[in-house]
Amino acid sequence: MEVEEHVTTTVESPVVDRALVAQLVGDAQRQGLSVEGEGGLLAQLTKMVLESALEGEITAHLGYEKHERTDEGVGNSRNGTRSKTVLTKAGPVEIEVPRDRAGTFEPVVVRKRQRRLGSIEDVVLSLSARGMTHGDISAHLADVYGSQVSKTTISTITDKVLDGMAEWQGRPLDPVYPVVFIDAIHVKIRDGQVANRPIYVALAVTVEGNRDILGLWAGDGGEGAKYWQQVLTEIKNRGVEDVLMLVCDGLKGLPESVANVWPATIVQTCIVHLMRNSFRYAARQDWDAISRGLKPVYQASTVEQAEERFLEFAEAWGKKYPAIVRLWENAWAEFVPFLQFDREIRRIVCTTNAIESVNARIRKAVKARGHFPNEQAALKCVYLAIMALDPTGKGRARWTQRWKQALNAFDITFDGRLSAARP
Fold first, then answer.
1. Residue 147 pLDDT grade (very low, low, confident, very high; cuts 50, 70, 90)
2. pTM of this prediction exceeds 0.70
3. Which strand (E) or helix (H) includes residue 205?
4. Whole-angstrom Cα Rg for the chain
5. Rounded to whole angstroms, what are the CA distances from 316 to 224, 281, 292, 309, 326?
6. Residues 184, 216: contact at Cβ < 8 Å?
7. At a CB cut-off of 8 Å and minimum separation 6, what does 305 contact?
8. How confident is the model at residue 211 (pLDDT cuts 50, 70, 90)?
9. CA-to-CA distance for 204 and 295, rounded, in angstroms?
10. Which own/partner contact pairs does 229-233 have at CB distance under 8 Å and 24+ positions apart?
């Protein structure tokens, strides 16, 4: 009964006594002790809480309370403590970590070799993923938390994601994807001299309609079909047996590279890329008129109708902008495939522009850095940026809902190749 009454009282009582807190703050102020900062009240309370939690962990591990008599030579036992300084939101805090003679105690609240509590590490990784430089992060932590964290320390924290990045990059993939979008982002890397280098991104839609970034690859020069074939081969070796449609920016030679990896895959030029490339050849005041002229082409009901609308566009704009006409003629073979499909497939491939939202986040992150010292630093930055996408999960829900009807159309159009992959 005493135990039951104690449990009831503990649940109903507040965890922290507000009067006690007020007394502690008042005593600290009278003694001239700062609430925040190194050695302040928060740091002292953090030390006490952490050490109490560690003591509770080793008690649970050994099975007896501190100072409780046990049979000598039987089982494991306490073996003193060791000092350790950890970085917290309250600043650096020195704590005493209990040890056991057998060396089997694995603390959880402050893990072995952990020098920073997760809150600070999470803040650093979050700020880095949003494009802040190491110097900016250091200044932010000093302003907001009063913690002096060097740029070298911040680099060490972000380097911890490299193991996770390597594991993520080599993870097994699904056997079939309805659509894979591929693109490259160019970043500046200082390798002897600063030069533009491509970071290749492959984004897939799963059979459930979820977004899945398959990987990141750093190229050694301009974006090329030969390198893309290496990337796609790696993706295939990770378990992808079939891709129904691959959407790209119309890179020359890419259809042949895709056919070497997945012969049945349809290569589709991304309409958004095609329109954007068209505007590069036109004056800004003509963009709206060119857009209206090309819209009937990519919204045509049939290939024949698209050809008629394109001839009309060529007659209207061919003399002023022959490069735009030539651009569409060169991309025509990879542009027309989606016209033969159900409207749901055409709408989602044409208008979703799936990879652009990812690219926008990547560009924002890399723009703040200017350039990177090496390839690994660039990949780390891009990886952190994509891992920070959609933290609330609301975007994923909208994405999945938008793809539902299209996935049904894919399954019908591609003769069950999609449903064969569903469990």
1. low
2. no
3. strand 193-205
4. 30
5. 33, 15, 12, 11, 14
6. no
7. none
8. confident
9. 26
10. 229/257, 229/258, 229/260, 229/261, 231/182, 231/200, 231/202, 232/202, 232/257, 232/258, 232/261, 232/262, 233/261
